[in-house]
Amino acid sequence: FQVVACSDKDDKDNRQLLHSYIKMQSNTDSSGASGTYSQTVGLLYVFNLIVGTGALALPKAFQSAGWLLSITLLTFSAFMSYVAATFVIEALSVANAVLSKKRRVEYDDVVVADGPSTFEIAKKVEVSEMASMFLSKVSLVFSYFAIIIYLFGDLAIYSTTVPKSAMNIVCSTINASIVKSSDPCHESWPEILTRMTVYRFFVIIFVVVVCLPMVIAGITKTRHIQIMTTLSRWAAFILMISLATMQLSSQGAAAHPPAYNFHGFGSLFGCAVYAFMCHHSIPSLITPMRSKENVFGKIAVVYGIVGVFYFTLSLTGAFAFEHVQDIYTLNFLHDDNTSFVYSIIDYFLALFPIITLTSSYPIIALTLINNFKVVKDILCPKTGQENESLLEEDNQVEDNDTDDERDTRNARSERTVFDVLVPTLVLALPTFLSLLTDDMLLLASITGSFPGVAVQFAIPCLLVTAARKHARSVLNFPVPRKNNSPFQSPIWIVLISSWAGFSMIMVLLNLVGVKF
Fold it and tell me: Membrane spanning segments where (predicted)?
């Protein structure tokens, strides 16, 4: 900051006030520095965030849509996703400048000159906070509802992928021939125990027995679970690429996908959006970086590496297996390799989605519940009369009440129908969808194509448009070149909007069965 004293008070008072202001800034910086990391580590976190379990649906989508169409669409979708990511970073820098200006208002006798330094990304401002800063109430509610619907889709995918993986571990082989959900789990089992029945049983077990207690307890992912999830993800993807490559080199291609099949456009686009989703977490990953030099270019390199990674995973899988499963790890289960080592690898790959998604489910559910509460506060804010009535109730509390009795009374008074209904809805609706279908590719396509488009494309465009306007009209200073997205022309926002609209129409036509 460039600080200039401009008061009629004596120099001693100014120096004391200036000293207290700088001390506050240094304390803020030092408190945040403990959680910082190098730029390389931050970029690695971005890579890990992008490469999630959504990639498991890509090989099936590649095989359905054709290899040439898949490469073209995934490349273009990755580029558009990168453009939107740069928009989020630029909006984040403007949000930091806004917070900087608010802090300076508290020190009337010290003027901190506006300049490029105020746009430095030093404080984490979540996407929802930026939406509250820059967007109108209508756009704000739209953003929250888009995130809510996307998180609902996330939970439906989780509560489908885990039980389906468990069902296929228990039931007989799926790679020898095409099986139906109505087929018995095992030939020796009763006919009522079909694959779908066993799958639905695992859905109930997963949601009610495993996840519900964690959601009630408010369990979040710990550092140890995060490390375990990251290591298992890297091991699983490397093993899948290696095994599929070995199978191709030793046995040749088991399938010959066409160059293009536009009927598979919908599932491919939805999976591509879902596979590159990271925008809602960008502030949490970019802010702690100690150096943000050339961050746009280095994130572009990360996107390029992720793209190559996805191409390798999807193309090897699309050609190595005659029938690619919608959860790609299942293709390696119960295969012809019966050695002990291969069996360990196959079961590890089948358990991989169960391990990673079970630890993430309660976090997504709690995030969804909190978003519902925020929307409720936006649409139905408490009036002054309600606040006064609450104060009157508090004043009527008897003096001889113990602390425990008072806490119990407060908890009961604060618990409303909304507080019971929302968690029930958050768990019940995705579970109901999972009980209806075990088609993870369909769920990923719909989640990525509609709410995913809003989260990945629409919200970043709204944020950067409003942030640029705020910087010019309120902050009276343009966004510095260092913090500027490389895509400054309004044409890019029009292009992203057109691409998102065209793709959503194509997905909708595919879903209703229109042939191309």
Answer: 43-62, 68-94, 138-158, 198-219, 231-248, 260-278, 299-321, 341-369, 416-436, 442-467, 491-512
